[in-house]
Every structure is written in structure tokens, then in C-alpha cells.
Amino acid sequence: MHLYGTQTVNGKGHLTIGGVDTVDLAHTYGTPLVVYDIALFRERAQAFKETFNNVGVRAQVAYASKAFSSIAIYEIANQEGLSLDVVSGGELHTAVVAGFPRERIHFHGNNKSFTELQYAFDEKIGCIVIDNFSEIALVKEIAESRQEKMNVLIRVTPGVEASTHDYITTGQEDSKFGFDLKNGQTDKAFRQLHDHPYIKLLGMHCHIGSQIFETDAFRLAAEALMEKMIVWRDDYEFVCEVLNLGGGFGIRYTEEDQPLNPSAYVEEMAEVVLSLTRTHNYPLPEIWIEPGRSLVGDAGTSLYTVGSMKEVPGVRTYIAVDGGMSDNIRPALYGAKYTAVTANRMDESHEKQVTIAGKCCESGDKLIEEAHLVEPAEGDIIAMFCTGAYGYSMASNYNRLPKPAVVFCENGHHQLVVRRETYEDVVRLDIPLQSVEQLEKI
User: Fold this and answer.
1) Does 253 carry a binding-site annotation?
2) What is residue 96's predicted lDDT score, i.e. its pLDDT?
3) What is the DSSP string of 172-211?
4) Is residue 293 part of an annotated ligand binding site?
5) Helix (H) or strand (E) holding 371
6) How far is residue 429's CA from residue 425's CA, in Å, rounded to a whole number?
7) Does the structure show a pLDDT above 50 at 398?
8) Residue 408 β-bridge partners
9) 386 in catalytic set
10) Which of 113, 187, 363, 374 makes a 20 to 30 Å CA pair with 241?
């Protein structure tokens, strides 16, 4: 079996993460529980930064925090010198509460509200990534009314189609995101922004998708944006200071996945940019990237406790756990595949094929259809690997299930960073129905 990061098996035959026994974690905090290997997060962050240093390119590595957003992970990102990509007022507020340096916050999103944009100006964040013409008008209105400057990037769709799931492909022409590079939208946006007195256009941004394993699409995207930047230099004497090539670097969820080392993506993109700047005598821009999944995806492991079991003779064995699509919607949403182990019996043979079902009242609530575990027993602790990205961040209270707790582990220590929801939390925003008499008094 493939273990990730600091995962090992201790003398009790238990899976450990960050030097901490996962069975002890399950007993201490309960299940479902999301456990993060913080040493792995730090290792990945430093690897991206070191690769840029090695190729001699100025860069910002921004954690794409929609993958997993919390005060504690923002604090870790800041400790590692990362920038931060937020996509909503809620994520921005989390960054503010975490004390994240505002100048390293980049605000994305295809439908930022007027209130959200005002908040970005209030906090004097580092950059707004402008997604559409409506947003240009809103940013101009706020900047002019306040007479305050704001750095911006133009998000473009370069017409590059990456090999990934349709739901997480974002760089093709038919996308809800950004200005089309080929039909003149990007040039129109540029003309509206580049000489505005309160808007400093830093350059361009693209993001071609997620869970991408090859480098060809990243090279094509870099080439397309660099070519447009050269045109703007030649036609308008405008030089882009920043080229943001997004994220989307794939990770290993199952043995079928063959991701590249994160440095390979950086090296390929940098090679394209360096070559074109030399050929066209263009000042080398600062390159920004936005890894999310590749920082937290395989750093996260979900722990569940086995409950009921059901044998369908000649078909399959179901084992039900105390979580499911409420804490990880990805298998039901787009058929995402995972691997799992029996965390409390790691030294036993994992040859029993089972379907791990969740407890939500949906037939489609299956976390893994063909998991290979130890012959299951009620009370076993199941560890499902690589759940650190888009698990907790997409969690819901479907069936009024409380969201799980989140724990960070590192160097033998563990720390609760998101508490488990209670039933009281689930009903906290509900308002009881008022009687007619009460309504008449309003």
C-alpha cells in the first residue's frame, strides 16, 4: 500500500500521521475526523519556492485556499511565506481574522459582489483578479469614489483544454471564468484598465483546470499569455509586471494516478517564460502560481468508524461509516476515487474487497466502491487517504449531520483547529415559526 508524507505504522499495527497514532486521535476527538500532516504541507510549499529560486525567477506561491480554508491553515501558509488566493468575502474575512499579511492576498471569483470588493479595498489587499466587464465597472466605481489605488490582474481563458474532469476544467473558451483571449475580450478589458489613474494593472492570470498530470497544457497557456503581453508592449508600450499561471497540479489519489513532482510544472512554465522573454527582449515578469490541492490534498486523511455491515451475496459487501457525502461530496459529485486502509489493523492483510458507504440517506453515498481492507469488524477505524482538498471545504449539513472536526499533526504533536459541530450548531440559525398573534404585533 502507498503511504503519504509522514505516515508510518507503529508497533501496535496502527497508522500514524505526523508521529501521532490515528487510533488515539479517533478516540480523543471522535470520528469523522480530518487529520492534516502539516510537515507535508510545509515540504510542498518550500519545494515550490525553491524551484523558482533554482531557475532564477522572481515568484509568489499563493495557497489556493478554496481547497481548505481555516484560520489555522492560513497561519501555516503565512509561516511558510506563501501568498493567499481567496475567492469570497468569507475566505477574505478568515484571512483577516488569521492576521494574514494583506499585501499577499489575491482576490479571485467570477461574481464578486460590491460589498466584497469594498471589503477588499477596506483591507488594502495586494491584488484583485478581475474576471469580467461588470467587475471592471465595480472596481472603477469604488476606486474613483475613494480615490484609492488597487492592483489588479486580468483573468483570461487562453483556449487551452487540459485533460481532467469537465467540472474542474476552466481554461477552455466555453468557461464561466475570465476574458476570452481569442475573441478580443481580453484586449477590450486591457484598454479599460491599463491607463486608469487609480488602477494599477499588474498583468494577466489564467487557470486551466485542476488535477492535471501533464505539463503540455501549462506550456501552451504560458505561451499564449506571453504572446499577448508582447503585443501589448509593442502596441501600447505597456509591460506586464506579473504573469499568474494558476494551479491545478495533480496529486496521487489512487495507484492509477501518476503525478509529476511539483517542481516539474514550475520548471516547464519557467522555461517557456524565460525563452520568450529572451527572444523578444521582454523584461522578465514575476511569476505567480496558485497550488491548492497539491499543498493540502494528500496531506489530509479522513478517519471514520465502521458501523453497520451488509452482505449482498454474489454482489458486494457494504460497510457503513459515520461520515459520507456530507463531509466528502467528491465521489458522488464527479466519481472521484480514493484509497483507504484499516487504520487500527495495518499489519493484517488488506484483501477483503468492500464498498465503503456513508450514512447519508442517498443510494449514491458511497465513498469507495472497491476498497481493499482487513475483514471488517464494527468499530474498526478506516483511514481514507488524500482527502485534504475539497473535502471539508465542500462539506454540508445534509441530513442535518454535523461537520467533522479537523486536527493538525506535526512532530508527534496534535492540535484541534476546527471543532466538531454539535446539534446545537446545526439548528443555530433556525427561527421557530411565530403564531398569528405574534405576527400581528410586529
Assistant:
1) no
2) 98
3) SSS-SSSEESSSSHHHHHHHHHTT-TTEEEEEEE---BSS
4) yes
5) strand 366-373
6) 8
7) yes
8) 36, 415
9) no
10) 113
CA distance 244 to 319: 45
247 in helix, strand or coil?
coil
What confidence tier does 165 reach under pLDDT thresholds 50, 70, 90? very low
Question: What count of other Cβ atoms lies within 10 Å of the Cβ of residue 147?
Answer: 8
Helix (H) or strand (E) holding 304: strand 300-312
Residue closest to 10 by CA, chosen among 18, 2, 372: 18
DSSP letter for each residue of 121-155: HHTT-SEEEE-SHHHHHHHHHHHHHHT--EEEEEE
Compute CA distances 77 → 91, 99, 146, 147, 160, whole Å: 14, 11, 31, 32, 30
292 is in an annotated binding site: yes
In terms of Cβ atoms closer than 10 Å to its own Cβ (0-12, 13-18, 19+), residue 371 is buried
Q: Which residue has the cell 480554508?
A: 69
Give CA–CA dist 245/232, Å, rounded: 18
- Among 140-144, 267-271, 365-369, whose mean pLDDT is lowest? 267-271
What are the residue ranges spanned by the domains of the chain?
8-37+297-426, 108-291
Topology of the domain comprising 108-291? TIM Barrel (3.20.20)
Q: Which three cell numbers stand for residue 382?
A: 478506516
Alpha carbon distances (Å) from 411 to 2, 7, 20, 40, 414: 21, 12, 8, 11, 8
Question: Is pLDDT above 90 for 192?
Answer: yes
- Residue 229's closest CA among 305, 266, 282? 282
User: Phi and psi of 397, rounded to 5°?
Assistant: -100, 30
Give the CATH number of domain 8-37+297-426: 2.40.37.10
255 annotated to bind ligand = no
362 annotated among ligand-binding-site residues: yes
291 is in an annotated binding site: yes
